[in-house]
């Protein structure tokens, strides 16, 4: 496994090179990703925004080493990714919790996989759960938690082994607007405390602008890189910032791209 | 029922500070009533049927050998208690051995079906035809092969009971959200750990569903075996009682068999509750409360 190397700090660590993915279906082949190239900097919050079906989730799965690419390469610190990357933290669109384990038990699953020392891991798990507002819910089963709480548990599970990279696949897509705002704020807080490199997949433009250092906008299928936008808003970002002209200008830029590509239509 | 319908309003009448204890009392009362009703209603139905039965047999002077009244059956049950206990014990041993064999053969078979598509394709038609085939028809053959002792009964019980275990286990192992497997791989679990920490616990509700069907079928299998050729067991006792027109004893034997079946089923349920948290038992919480 590629160990995070201090030498590369601040520089590029993740490099996607002409990544393509073709799915075979009964009606022929579908090209989900077409020659996507990108470099992510260490410590950067990078979002990928695009319409449904543009292959953003596929991009994340390939980056995580969970799906093979049809063409092109993924490398971390110069090493090719050929199998699941276990050193990262990953959050899927659904919480993917084990129904027969409590909130704490679900977080500890990661610790068991990594063979971490149990007592210390459990202390950290409790601290993480507490930090995302789940103090007192450690012994609850998933069915006793709300959707937002479950996704918080899944976030804690992705963080307990203190990864320096986080991959998130539309993690807040299924949540209501208020819960979403809170989780976005929580995520910003977590990322500011420990410099993490985040690859964040979303279809929400404001969410991407709020969280990101850079946004990669993708075209409709087959997914290609349309434009990369640097977000210069100061940190920490606040909810009020969403109403500033600067914020609106970034959102506008992305929406204009979607209009130009026919993703959105103004009648 | 009327008061329990609106616990919120009742609790509110007690004042805001007492809201939660009030709600909890209302809820406890509601649950207690549901539990009492769950025992009382079926008991009342059974009692009603028994009373009707007793009255009808006496009123119309139905001959004993045709349909004895419940009291006559009860008398026979008590008078033959030790005889029934002896035969029930034999049948229990046959059932449990058949059931155990079903688990020991069924679960590894399901595992092999799950792991190897080639094995699954070659064995499934055979399994399905083994179930389509009437077991009563094979019973005489087993007699020829294995004699009149314990073995043929255990084998017939096994033959009937193993199928639901195989199918439910194989389906349970196969039906898992792909995300759970992705998660396991991204966390670094190997094939072994993924199976024992994720896939197997995920399949447990389905497996126990199979076990519950299987235990009731094992009872049928053992009795079929005793019918066809045996010198002991409740099935044998039923045949003897039938032959001597002792219908009271016949009914007493049926009662004993029913009780045996229910007790064994409940034991599997107890094991299920020990193995998996209540809320993920197949059939759900509501279905469970109704039992």
Calculate Rg of chain A over CA atoms: 19 Å
CATH architecture of the largest domain in chain B: Orthogonal Bundle
> Architecture of the largest domain in chain A, according to CATH?
3-Layer(aba) Sandwich
Q: Which secondary-structure class do the elements of chain B indicate?
A: mainly alpha
Strand-helix topology:
The complex is a heterodimer of chains A (267) and B (291).
Chain A lengths: L11 E14 L2 E14 L3 E5 L6 H8 L7 E6 L2 E2 L8 E3 L11 H11 L4 H14 L15 H13 L5 E5 L7 H17 L3 E6 L2 H7 L2 E5 L6 E6 L14 H16 L7
Helix pairs in contact in A: 2-3, 2-4, 6-7
Chain B lengths: L6 H7 L5 H41 L10 H10 L1 H35 L1 H16 L2 H12 L3 H25 L3 H10 L3 H38 L5 H10 L3 H29 L8 H7 L1
Question: Could you explain how this protein is built, in words?
Answer:
The complex is a heterodimer of chains A (267) and B (291). With 267 residues, chain A is α/β, with parallel strands linked by helices. Chain A has two domains: 31-88 and 164-267, P-loop containing nucleotide triphosphate hydrolases (Rossmann fold, 3-Layer(aba) Sandwich), CATH 3.40.50.300; 97-162, no CATH class. Helices cover 32% and strands 25% of the residues of chain A. In chain A, the strands form two sheets. Chain A has a six-stranded mixed β-sheet with strand order 6-7-8-3-9-10, sandwiched between helices. Chain A has a four-stranded antiparallel β-sheet with strand order 2-1-4-5, with helices on one face. In chain A, a hairpin with a 2-residue loop joins strand 4 (71-76) and strand 5. Chain B folds into two domains: 7-59; 70-290, MetI-like (MetI-like fold). Chain B contains twelve helices and no strands. The longest helix of chain B has 41 residues, at 19-59. The chains are: A alpha/beta (267), B mainly alpha (291).
């Amino acid at each position: 496994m590629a160990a995070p190397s201090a030498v590369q700090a601040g520089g590029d660590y993740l490099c996607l090179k002409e990544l393509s993915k073709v799915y075979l279906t009964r009606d022929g082949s579908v090209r989900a990703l077409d020659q996507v190239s990108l470099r992510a900097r260490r410590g950067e919050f990078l979002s990928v925004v695009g319409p449904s079906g543009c292959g953003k989730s596929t991009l994340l799965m390939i980056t995580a080493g969970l799906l093979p690419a049809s063409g092109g390469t993924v490398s971390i610190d110069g090493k090719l990714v050929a199998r699941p990357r276990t050193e990262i933290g990953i959050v899927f669109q659904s919480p993917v919790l084990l129904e027969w384990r409590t909130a704490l038990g679900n977080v500890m699953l990661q610790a068991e996989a990594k063979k971490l020392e149990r007592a210390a891991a459990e202390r950290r798990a409790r601290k993480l759960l507490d930090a995302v507002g789940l103090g007192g819910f450690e012994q609850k089963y998933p069915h006793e938690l709300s959707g937002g709480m479950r996704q918080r548990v899944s976030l804690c599970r992705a963080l307990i082994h203190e990864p320096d990279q986080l991959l998130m696949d539309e993690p807040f897509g299924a949540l209501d607007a208020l819960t979403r705002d809170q989780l976005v704020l929580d995520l910003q807080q977590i990322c500011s405390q420990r410099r993490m490199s985040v690859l964040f997949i979303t279809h929400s433009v404001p969410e991407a602008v709020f969280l990101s250092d850079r946004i990669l906008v993708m075209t409709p299928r087959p997914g290609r890189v349309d434009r990369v936008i640097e977000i210069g808003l100061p940190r920490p970002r606040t909810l009020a910032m969403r109403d500033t002209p600067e914020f609106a200008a970034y959102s506008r830029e992305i929406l204009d791209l979607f209009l130009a590509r026919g993703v959105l239509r103004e009648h | 029922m009327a008061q329990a319908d609106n616990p919120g309003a009742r609790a509110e009448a007690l004042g805001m500070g007492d809201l939660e204890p009030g709600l909890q009392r209302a809820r406890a009362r509601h649950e207690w009533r549901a539990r009492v009703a769950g025992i009382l209603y079926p008991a009342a139905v059974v009692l009603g049927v028994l009373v009707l039965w007793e009255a009808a047999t006496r009123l119309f002077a139905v001959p004993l050998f045709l349909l004895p009244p419940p009291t006559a059956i009860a008398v026979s049950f008590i008078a033959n208690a030790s005889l029934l206990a002896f035969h029930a014990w034999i049948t229990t041993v046959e059932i449990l051995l058949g059931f155990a064999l079903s688990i020991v053969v069924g679960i590894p078979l399901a595992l092999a079906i799950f792991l190897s598509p080639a094995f699954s394709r070659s064995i499934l038609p055979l399994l399905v035809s083994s179930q389509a085939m009437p077991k009563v028809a094979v019973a005489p053959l087993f007699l020829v092969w294995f004699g009149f002792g314990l073995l043929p009964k255990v084998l017939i019980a096994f033959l009937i009971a193993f199928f639901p275990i195989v199918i439910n286990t194989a389906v349970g192992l196969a039906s898992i959200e792909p995300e759970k497997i992705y998660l396991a791989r991204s966390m670094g679990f190997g094939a072994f750990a993924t199976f024992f920490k994720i896939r197997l616990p995920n399949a447990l509700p389905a497996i126990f569903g199979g076990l519950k069907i299987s235990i009731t079928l094992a009872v049928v299998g053992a009795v079929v075996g005793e019918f066809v050729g045996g010198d002991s067991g409740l099935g044998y006792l039923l045949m003897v009682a039938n032959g001597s027109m002792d219908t009271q004893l016949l009914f007493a034997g049926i009662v004993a068999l029913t009780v045996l079946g229910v007790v064994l089923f409940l034991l599997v349920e107890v094991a299920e509750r020990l193995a998996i948290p209540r809320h993920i038992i197949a059939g759900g919480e509501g279905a469970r409360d109704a039992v």
